[in-house]
Amino acid sequence: MNYSIIADAYEKIESTSKRLEMIDFLVDLLRETPKEIIDKVIYLTQGKICPDFVGLEVGIAEKLAIKSLSKASGRDQKQIENDLKKSGDIGKTAFEFISERIQTSFFKRTLTVEKVFETFKKMAKTVGSKAINVKISLLSGLLLDASPKEAKYLMRTVTQNLRLGIADMTVLDALAISYGGGKNNRPKIERAYNISSDLGKVAQKIAETGLEGINTIQVEVFKPIRPMLAERLSSTEEILDKLNGLCSAEYKYDGERVQIHKKGQQITLYSRRLENITNQYPDIIKFIKTSIVSNTAILEGEIVAINRQTGALLPFQELMRRRRKYNVTRFMELYPVSLFLFEALYVDGEDFTTKKYFDRRKVLENILKKNDKIKLAKNFVTTNKKELESFFEEAIANGSEGLICKATGNYSIYQAGARGWLWIKYKKDYHSEMIDTTDLVIIGAFYGRGKRAGVYGTLLLATYNKECDTFESVTKCGTGFTDEDLIKILNILKNHIITKKHPRVISTIDAEIWFEPKLVLEIIGAEITLSPIHTCGFGSIRKNRGLAIRFPRFTRKYRTEKNPEDATTSMEIIEIYRNQIK
Ligand code: ATP
């Protein structure tokens, strides 16, 4: 398949400001793609070469990209750097320099998707002392064969600046339309994705075998499962109501979520974002080897820092002190941890994601040998709101963040990849006042004035609308930022600036600068009000009104472990609003 087909599709996708049109262009591209390479086209379109959990990234430094462009265009590196300073976009600069290249290759070949993909893969795998030169020569090789338009997208991809913003749900919609018999069938395809975390594989399967074949994608060890997430409520009464009067409340430990995959003595740990974090926790690996008795397993738990003297639970910030590439062993001794298991998703060949809560809890109990490093998450089963309240107080007193109250009935399955009402969190911050923390995505900004000249003065923030896969503006925030934060945010967002409002952003407010939805910040607000200008939950409470967070303040927590789709949802804001007026 010619790479020019992809480049043309990207250009169209980039030109639209409507999500539905974006999906149409993607559908056209998928229909034009030979089935055997549909996985590659999916990965490339998301700026990747494989699913995230494999940990192989295409990214190279801008300096290397410039060197490769200089080699392929026969132009001086300095000239390219100067142009890049002006354009601010390596894609545009590549377009210019390849259009006016001095040398043209005698043997210019047509660039194919296969060739681009294989070359990117080679680049990603190249390590060692000669890596830099090898990467430059591989990339300049591609650029020699590229048209200016192809060069633009090649360069954006290798420097991780593709910014098409085609998220997982957009791809799933496009797959449902192109191969799954229509958008209504998305949930079936989504399930396959949720248990495999591999969109390329799902695309390949559905393209080759249609909707029926998708069921052959099953839970497998070393293929991480997308995590189940919790909704939130602010009283024990509502929680019990929602869970049909009975729940198993578990401590909500304040650490790092981990998904453990085990086969014999081989163990891999995945983070909440499904990145491989095995190297961070040699101690946990050791404990698992001695304490989990099943041969194969996929389990979930929270790794928590503990006080060396007293064994008390410590907050998340303490655990983060261990986050480092080097000296892991030394820091492991300084900051010891425990693991609290809360889910069994797969044990010795059996898929537990579709089984009931108590079945999962039982198997977890059965495979865990008694020890003091790995324990089951402490739980309490109750039908009584007063008992639930005192268990909450106990959980807080013992250093946890609150409770996750879990459904236990016939349909108490593990909903991979979903934030639903089978798990409900009950935290300290909801408990106190209406002051509540939310995780919001930065979608736009306004320049600072006076003391804030040169940085962003106010950020336009959004919630995630899961049903429509869009980001809806909910507040403008300029409070809570230190000078350092403002510079840090400016630098992070530099790589996500786009020329117009992103197709997945719904906003009637005109920001001075728009961003690809990427960075998530924790924001605390005083209350939620109806708003004529913000689009969060528009029309769901009152006609022509959305919802807004009043008096927002940045808590200084950068939620970099969250994807934009993990941000607080518009539905959650609607719920908080309803509770507030009750
Ligand atoms: P938060 O920002 O509140 O941590 P989140 O968006 O990361 O939330 P939620 O679904 O809202 O995720 O809350 C569930 C999180 O709580 C899990 O991701 C996990 O890290 C943590 N957790 C701690 N203890 C438990 C438990 N017993 N069961 C499930 N999750 C738990």
Task: Write a structural description.
The chain is an alpha+beta fold and 582 residues long. It folds into four domains: 3-158, DNA ligase, ATP-dependent, N-terminal domain (DNA ligase i, domain 1), CATH 1.10.3260.10; 168-216; 229-431, DNA ligase/mRNA capping enzyme (D-amino Acid Aminotransferase, Chain A, domain 1, 2-Layer Sandwich); 436-581, Nucleic acid-binding proteins (OB fold (Dihydrolipoamide Acetyltransferase, E2P), Beta Barrel). 39% of the residues lie in helices and 21% in strands. The chain is built from 21 helices and 21 strands. The strands form four sheets. Strands 12, 13, 14, 15, 16, 17, 18 and 21 form an eight-stranded mixed sheet that branches. Strands 3, 4, 5, 6, 7 and 8 form a six-stranded mixed sheet that branches. Strands 1-11-10-2-9 form a five-stranded mixed sheet. A hairpin with a 4-residue loop joins strand 13 (456-465) and strand 14 (470-477). Helix 1 packs antiparallel against helix 2, helix 5 crosses helix 6 (90-99) and helix 11 packs across helix 12 (199-213). The chain is globular. Bound molecules: adenosine-5'-triphosphate. Residues 229-230, 250-253, 257, 272, 302, 342, 377, 404, 425, 566 line the site of adenosine-5'-triphosphate. Residues 229-230, 250-253, 257, 272, 302, 342, 377, 404, 425, 566 line the site of adenosine-5'-triphosphate (ATP).
Uncertain regions: pLDDT < 50 for 5+ in a row?
none
**Small molecules bound in the structure, each named once:** adenosine-5'-triphosphate
Give the biggest sheet. Answer: 8 strands, mixed
Instruction: Classify the oligomer.
Output: single chain
Total helical elements: 21
